[in-house]
Amino acid sequence: MIKVLSFQRSCKSYFRIYKDRSPNVEICCDTCNRKMHKHGRYYRSVTTKQETIEIPVYRWLCPSCRTTVSLLPDFLVPWARIATYLREAAVIRKMRGFSYGIIAQEITALRTRVSRCTVKRWWKLHLCKASKLSLWLAKQLVLSGCTEDLLLHYPNVVNADPTETVRWLQKLIPLYSRKPTTVRGTWSFLHTLLPVKHLL
């Protein structure tokens, strides 16, 4: 199982502080609610704008049901090696009409360059995830007592397309999180609140 936590750190800062010791956090098992114990670590590569760093990801174990949890910092999601804020920057640029090639050049330095095909894949994945995440956010807003007609934020209800759903998602996120964009981006903050299946 994966949990994404905000350590209020950049990738470099996270590595410097936690390379030899685990974060001092208390985790309770989602299955049986018992306090979990520290259970080792594994390493993940993270590519930032300037470099690729191997960071430790710490694990916790439930002594009762033997469930394990890996704690990811908010700048990382499962199976992605590129830092979350860079993928968010790529999607925002695509929404503004930039080409895949230009985006690939702008979001990273020469030695960590991603290909235009990678940026295109990120955009397609975001288009797929946006609809489910938008509906999930709208549901959470309604359950929390929001009485606003959320469809009024949708750009074109009659002729909907995936790009407009992405724009709707961008309008729902601030309503849900009620927090300003952090230095590491809105997605990093949002990931600490979302179920793993909806991580961007």
Summarize the structure in words.
The chain is built from 6 helices and 4 strands, in the order βαβββααααα. A 4-stranded mixed sheet has the order 1-4-3-2, with helices on one face. β3 and β4 form a beta hairpin. The chain has 200 residues and is of the alpha+beta class. It is 39% helix and 16% strand. It folds into 2 domains: 72 residues, no CATH class; 108 residues, no CATH class. It is flat. The longest helix is centred in the middle third of the chain and has 28 residues. The model has no long low-confidence stretch (mean pLDDT 86). The protein starts with a strand and ends in a 9-residue tail after the last helix.
Layout of SSEs?
Layout: E1 2-5, H1 11-18, E2 37-47, E3 52-61, E4 68-73, H2 84-95, H3 100-107, H4 116-143, H5 162-177, H6 186-191
Parallel strand pairs: 1-4
Antiparallel strand pairs: 2-3, 3-4
Helix pairs in contact: 2-3, 2-4, 3-4, 4-5
Key words describing this protein structure:
200 residues, alpha+beta, 2 domains, four-stranded mixed beta sheet, 6 helices, 39% helix, flat
Tally of helical segments = 6
Instruction: Report the mean per-residue pLDDT as an integer.
Output: 86
The secondary structure category is alpha+beta
Report the order of strands and helices.
EHEEEHHHHH
Overall 3D form: flat
Spans of at least 5 consecutive residues whose pLDDT stays below 50 are none
Tell me the β content.
15-25%
How far is the N terminus from the C terminus? 17 Å
Helix content: 25-40%
Overall tally of domains: 2
The strand line-up of the biggest sheet is: 1-4-3-2
Biggest sheet, in brief? Answer: 4 strands, mixed
**Gyration radius, rounded:** 18 Å
Compute the number of strand runs.
4
